[in-house]
């Protein structure tokens, strides 16, 4: 028993059926070429056969007369220099290193590496204490003043927001 294409007209005999299948396969291939090549219109002529294909345009939803503002493209440049984290005072003796941006907190320069700082470590002013990854760029977070790390307030790989407290330091002087 043979299987029949449900789209194939009943009146076709076996030779015409093969020709019909070849033609529909060729049309599918042309549609694929149009889609992959971003082609809007395609015409093919062969003997007395002419095929004309036109891609449908996508209809955008109504905008109520307001066009969305598209920000300018950001061009890649050199990675930013170390960003000093603001250091708001928590009490008379401690200050907090906070995140200057939204991103992912990393305690070390690479997985499995020793953390930049640990609780109890002495930190110098300008020393890197963490990294915040934002948009695939690693931004060093530096201490604004010397101190001893009292507490690290986030875990490695945690997402942080602008101003999010990262660690508390007790000043040396």
UniProtKB/TrEMBL annotation:
Stored Pfam families: Biotin_lipoyl (PF00364)
UniProt keyword annotation of Disulfide bond present: no
Domain Lipoyl-binding span(s) in chain numbering: 94-170
Signal peptide coordinates: none
Pathway the protein acts in: Lipid metabolism; fatty acid biosynthesis
InterPro entries xrefs: AcCoA_biotinCC, Biotin_Carboxyl_Carrier/Decarb, Biotin_lipoyl, Single_hybrid_motif
Keywords from the UniProt entry: Biotin, Fatty acid biosynthesis, Fatty acid metabolism, Ligase, Lipid biosynthesis, Lipid metabolism
Domain of life assignment: Bacteria
Function text: This protein is a component of the acetyl coenzyme A carboxylase complex; first, biotin carboxylase catalyzes the carboxylation of the carrier protein and then the transcarboxylase transfers the carboxyl group to form malonyl-CoA.
Protein name: Biotin carboxyl carrier protein of acetyl-CoA carboxylase
């Amino acid at each position: 028993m043979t299987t029949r294409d449900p789209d194939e007209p009943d009146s076709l005999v076996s030779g015409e059926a093969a020709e019909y299948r070849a033609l529909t396969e060729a049309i599918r291939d042309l549609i694929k070429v149009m889609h992959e090549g971003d082609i809007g219109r395609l015409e093919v002529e062969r003997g007395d056969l002419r095929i004309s294909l036109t891609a449908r345009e996508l209809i955008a939803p109504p905008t109520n007369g307001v066009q969305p503002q598209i920000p300018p493209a950001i061009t890649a440049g050199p990675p930013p220099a170390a960003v000093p984290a603001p250091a708001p005072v928590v009490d008379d003796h401690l200050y907090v290193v906070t995140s200057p941006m939204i991103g992912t907190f990393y305690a070390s320069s690479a997985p499995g590496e020793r953390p930049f700082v640990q609780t109890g470590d002495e930190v110098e002013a300008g020393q890197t204490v963490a990294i915040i990854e934002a948009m695939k760029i690693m931004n060093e977070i530096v201490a604004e003043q010397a101190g001893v790390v009292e507490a690290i307030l986030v875990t490695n790989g945690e997402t942080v927001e602008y101003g999010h407290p990262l660690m508390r330091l007790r000043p040396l002087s």
